[in-house]
DUF6702 family protein (Winogradskyella pulchriflava), 168 residues
Amino acid sequence: MKRLQLILLVIIVPLLFSYDAKHEYYVSVTKIEHSKTHQSLQIISQLFIDDFEKLLRQRYDESLKLAPDNNEEVINEYMSRYLTDKLKINVNGKPVNFVFIGKEYKDDIAYCYLEVENVAKITSIEVVNRALFDVFEEQQNIVRLKLNNKNKSFLLVPDNDKCMLNFD
């Protein structure tokens, strides 16, 4: 019995000390869908909370903590400002601005809800997504487009941070 306990101890203790809270990959997902009914682009940008928090702390406020009911107005302002700087969208060859609607946290992901209004028809869309590239070299940003009954996904990296889709 003592031998079994010793074996378990030798196996389990190193596992406990080797646990690292950091995740092994750095990825975000941004979904962009055209709503013909609302004549708008509806956007959901998903980022790991710990990565986004690290970035917002470095950029804006060292004491910032991304948690429900924690300085909601300030956090929304920082998130909106950052995403406006790093996520650029051109529709039909013209730059468009999105409105930051809000955010929510689910598990370890921050879901940021954005909208571009007054988009009746799309003949082309260009998306530049540089989110978190300034903090994590390994960061990858997936852009999923659901427009004009077509679905297309792109993988953006620091050296290739732009995607384009034409419908002509």
User: Anything to note?
Assistant: The longest helix spans residues 2-18. The first strand starts at residue 27 and ends at 35. The radius of gyration is 20 Å. The CA atoms of residues 6 and 12 lie 10 Å apart.
